[in-house]
Structure formats: structure tokens, C-alpha cells
């Protein structure tokens, strides 16, 4: 009798276990997205010179992703992150500028629009870079509010379309009249929701102010659920740090800015802990592309390139009790997977009327020894040419120029180069001559996938009028 009772009890037990979401509710999500941070810029990914104690702790309490992909430059990376699609599919080029007439199409479904119908409070704080015109701003893409700069911090003002708030703070002798006359580089507007509240933005205090804004939002929405998207302006050039950090690191302003980012992470973690939100909050930390003008060891290349150094990013995820602490995952993943993953975590609906390229990577987050979720990564260059493809350990370059700006697909298979990322992370040894069958297979796969994306390409949003 006893074994039967035990089995019956086990079956009843299984039937009575409520679903994860019913037990824990919907998790809060904080997504910290750094600009131009390289793989080895922080302690958990090999930096020995800078002090990143909060990120070190973050990694010790969470899981590192060592094959986490973005794209070579800014806007295309944010397009992938927000839509779960390759940038080419949603027609967002490498980088948008203050004179760009396009933005992410308002018809695209963003991360915020996945979670919002599920009751999430949403905010975007930092660099948007998916269209600066009114109709493309974060508040038109599912975010309840926005505070930040609309594009990169080395850019300037759209002098025609700038919309200043009544109480806009003009700094350094600037006036609205002057601002509209001359567009100066490295002077960018600071926007709240849809209006400019400070011009030119004081960049030295942006990391600090973004952090304060995030902490304030978390406190105000502690009953949850909430989604904080925090795409920092740093560490894109021109570098800046507040007086508390300036001159304090061993690597100049770059190190100062990185150490201030680490402080920012610490502030957010401390707030979650204080409010006892730790166990119900997923925190993700990653970057939009490789480092600018610097190396990204152990990889080859950096920002703008499709070498691993340009696109493989540091990434850490932490959710105590859910994500195994102090672990690493080497399976292919990337910011393109966030949308389906967020849908899974929040009970959100994935759009059914369009193709989504990313995959739900929750198994990579939660399983002890996860197998691959997707085995293929496409590497689009800044000019939207398909530059390379990775399947498993093999990466095939389809262009001669990995710089990203000028690379045109080469027609002749003899020009392709093949690297084994399992044994050659630095992409030093071309093995195409040794493995013609792998070259042929990957070429065929890349051609097919590239054609499918172009066939099901969706338009960018077009700015039609001066507002
Ligand atoms: Ca960037």
C-alpha cells in the first residue's frame, strides 16, 4: 500500500503545484544597456584595472552570458533589442542622426508594448536612438515616460524640429535663438517625455541623474510590476563623469565613466534590496556594441566591425532564486532574444502577424546546464549587408571587409573566411580551405536567411512633417 500512497501523493502534489507565475506574480525587469562598452571593460569579463565591485557582485549572484550578441553600432542594436528582429527586417540603419527623417516604425511592437498590456509601469531613461522626431520617441512606443538624450552624445540639435519646454534650462550662455542658429557637435538636448528640458545637456551628471530617475521610479512603483529600460549615455564619446568619479580611476575619463556606471548599478541593486524586491526582479546588464577605438580581448576587432570584438557583449542577468548564482552560459544568445523572453516571463503576447527573429532564452537563464536555444547568429554590418553567419562553433565571413561600413557581399566562395570559435576566439586562423563543406553549408544558410529577411522586410517610420 505504502508505495501506491506515495505515488498517489506525488501525483496529487504535481497536480496541486501552481504555475510559476501564479506563485510569484510578474517579475519586475530592469534592463541596463551601456553604450559602447567592450567585453573586457568590467571585472566579471576580465578587467583587472578598474574597480567594478557592484558588477562583480552582480555576476557572483547571477549568470554571465559569454556568447551574447549585439550589433556593430548603436541604432541597429537598439532596433534589435526593442523589436526582437534583425535591424534589416525593421529597416533601421546602423546609426540615425539629428537630420534623419526616419525612426523605428510606430507600428513595431517594442519590449515596452509587450509588457504594458500585462499591467507593467514602464520608463525609458537614457539614450533612445530610434528616431528623435515626436512620433518616434519612447512615449510613442509603449513607455509611460522618458528622460534622456534622443541620440548619441557627440551629435547636435535638430535646429528645425527642436521642441523646447517652457522652463527649459539653457546652459553656457545658450538661448533658444542661438540654439536654433548653429548646430554644435557634442551638444545634445536632454528630453523629458517629448520636450527638451535642458540644452545643452550637462553630460558630466547624466549617469547620476539617470540613476536618480531610475531609483525614484522603482520606489514609486514598488508594488509593481515595472519595467525600467536604462540605456546609459556613457561610455560613448565624449566621455564624462561627475565630480565624485572624475580623476579617480586608473584609466582616465574612460575608467571614471565605467566606475560611475558600476556605482549606478550598485544604487539600483541597493534600492531593490531595501524595498525587498530582490527576489521578484530580473536585472539585466549588457551593452549595445563593442568598444570604440579600443581592443576587446580576447576578441578581434571592436565597434563598427563584425569581428567578435564588435558585437559580442558583456552580459549578466540576476534573479535570486531563479537564475543559478555565480554561473556562466556560453550558448548563443543576444539582445534580439529579449522580446520573446520578456513575453514568456510576463505572460505577454508575441505578435502573430509578423516574423520575430529572436527566441525565448529563459532556458538559458534558468537551467543548470542549458543546451542551445538557437544555433545561428547573423552578423549584419553597419551598412545592413549580411557580413557573417555563425552556426555552433563555426563563423563564416561573407564579406572581405569586416569594418562594417564598406563591406559588400562577395560572390566567390573562394573569398570567404571561416573561423572555429571553439578553439580560436581571436579569429586568427582561416580554415575555409580545410572545410569547404562547412563553407558551402553556411553560405547556403546565410543566403537563404538573408533572402527571407529581405522578403519579409518591414518599413521604418517616415517623418512627414515639421512639428
Ligand atoms: Ca553604441
Would you give an account of this structure?
By secondary structure, the protein is α/β, with parallel strands linked by helices. The chain folds into two domains: 26-375, Alkaline Phosphatase, subunit A (3-Layer(aba) Sandwich); 377-462, Arylsulfatase, C-terminal domain, CATH 3.30.1120. The longest helix is centred in the middle third of the chain and has 23 residues, at 252-274. The chain contains twelve helices and 18 strands. Residues 5-23 have low confidence and may be disordered. The structure holds calcium ion. Calcium ion is lined by residues 35-36, 74, 236, 288-289. Calcium ion binds at residues 35-36, 74, 236, 288-289.
Q: List low-confidence stretches.
A: 5-23
Q: Which small-molecule ligands are present, each listed once?
A: calcium ion
Rg, nearest Å:
22 Å
How much helical structure, as a percent, in the residues?
Answer: 25-40%
Beta-strand fraction estimate = 15-25%
Number of domains: 2
Distance between the termini: 79 Å
Task: State the CATH superfamily name of the largest domain.
Answer: Alkaline Phosphatase, subunit A
CATH first level of the largest domain: Alpha Beta
Taking all residues together, what is the mean pLDDT?
Answer: 93
Shape: globular
What would you say the CATH architecture of the largest domain is?
Answer: 3-Layer(aba) Sandwich
Beta strands, count: 18
How would a textbook summarize the main sheet?
Answer: 12 strands, mixed
Helices and strands, with pairings:
Elements: H1 2-16, H2 20-24, E1 28-34, H3 53-61, E2 63-69, H4 74-83, E3 102-103, H5 111-115, E4 121-125, E5 145-148, E6 164-170, H6 176-181, E7 190-192, E8 195-199, H7 206-220, E9 226-231, H8 252-274, E10 281-287, H9 308-311, E11 312-318, E12 327-329, E13 333-334, H10 338-346, H11 362-366, E14 376-380, E15 386-391, E16 394-397, E17 417-420, H12 436-455, E18 461-462
Parallel strand pairs: 1-9, 1-10, 2-12, 2-13, 4-5, 4-9, 6-8
Antiparallel strand pairs: 2-11, 3-18, 5-7, 7-8, 10-11, 14-15, 15-16, 16-17
Helix pairs in contact: 7-8
Bound molecules: calcium ion (CA).
Amino acid at each position: 500500500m505504502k508505495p501506491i500512497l506515495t505515488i498517489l501523493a506525488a501525483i496529487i502534489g504535481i497536480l496541486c503545484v501552481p504555475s510559476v507565475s501564479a506563485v510569484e506574480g510578474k517579475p519586475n525587469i530592469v534592463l541596463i544597456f551601456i553604450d559602447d562598452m567592450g567585453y573586457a571593460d568590467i571585472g566579471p569579463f576580465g578587467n583587472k584595472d578598474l574597480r567594478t565591485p557592484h558588477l562583480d557582485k552582480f555576476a557572483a549572484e547571477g549568470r554571465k552570458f559569454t556568447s551574447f550578441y549585439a550589433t556593430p553600432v548603436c541604432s541597429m542594436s537598439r532596433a534589435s533589442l526593442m523589436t526582437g528582429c534583425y535591424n534589416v527586417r525593421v529597416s533601421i540603419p546602423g546609426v540615425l542622426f539629428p537630420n534623419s527623417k526616419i525612426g523605428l516604425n510606430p507600428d513595431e511592437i517594442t519590449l515596452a508594448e509587450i509588457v504594458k498590456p500585462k499591467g507593467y509601469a514602464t520608463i525609458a531613461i537614457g539614450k533612445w536612438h530610434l528616431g528623435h522626431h515626436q512620433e518616434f520617441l519612447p512615449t510613442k512606443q509603449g513607455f509611460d515616460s522618458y528622460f534622456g538624450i534622443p541620440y548619441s552624445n557627440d551629435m547636435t540639435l535638430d535646429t528645425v524640429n527642436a521642441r523646447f519646454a517652457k522652463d527649459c534650462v539653457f546652459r553656457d550662455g545658450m538661448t533658444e535663438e542661438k540654439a536654433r542658429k548653429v548646430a554644435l557637435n557634442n551638444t545634445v538636448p536632454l528630453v523629458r517625455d517629448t520636450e527638451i528640458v535642458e540644452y545643452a545637456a550637462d553630460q558630466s551628471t547624466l549617469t547620476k541623474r539617470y540613476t536618480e530617475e531610475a531609483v525614484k521610479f522603482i520606489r514609486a512603483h514598488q508594488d509593481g510590476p515595472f519595467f525600467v529600460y536604462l540605456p546609459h549615455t556613457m561610455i560613448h564619446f565624449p566621455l564624462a563623469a561627475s565630480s565624485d568619479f572624475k580623476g579617480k580611476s586608473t584609466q582616465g575619463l574612460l575608467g571614471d565613466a565605467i566606475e560611475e556606471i558600476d556605482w549606478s548599478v550598485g544604487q539600483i541593486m541597493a534600492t531593490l534590496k531595501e524595498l525587498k524586491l530582490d527576489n521578484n526582479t530580473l536585472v539585466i546588464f549588457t551593452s549595445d556594441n563593442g568598444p570604440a577605438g579600443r581592443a576587446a580581448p580576447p576578441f578581434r576587432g571592436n565597434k563598427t566591425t563584425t569581428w567578435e570584438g564588435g558585437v559580442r557583449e558583456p552580459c549578466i542577468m540576476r534573479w535570486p532564486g531563479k537564475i543559478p548564482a555565480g554561473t556562466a552560459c556560453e550558448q548563443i544568445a543576444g539582445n534580439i532574444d529579449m522580446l520573446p523572453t520578456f513575453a514568456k516571463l510576463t505572460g505577454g503576447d508575441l505578435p502573430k502577424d509578423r516574423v520575430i527573429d529572436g527566441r525565448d532564452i529563459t532556458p538559458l537563464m534558468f537551467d543548470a546546464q542549458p543546451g542551445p536555444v538557437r544555433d545561428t547568429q547573423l552578423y549584419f554590418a553597419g551598412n545592413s549587408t549580411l557580413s557573417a553567419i555563425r552556426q555552433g562553433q563555426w563563423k563564416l565571413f561573407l564579406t572581405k571587409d569586416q569594418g562594417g561600413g564598406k563591406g559588400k557581399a562577395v560572390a566567390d566562395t573562394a573569398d570567404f573566411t571561416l573561423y572555429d570559435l571553439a578553439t580560436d576566439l581571436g579569429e586568427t586562423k582561416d580554415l575555409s580551405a580545410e572545410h569547404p563543406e562547412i563553407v558551402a553549408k553556411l553560405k547556403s544558410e546565410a543566403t537563404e536567411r538573408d533572402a527571407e529577411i529581405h522578403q519579409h522586410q518591414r518599413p521604418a517610420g517616415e517623418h512627414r512633417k515639421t512639428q
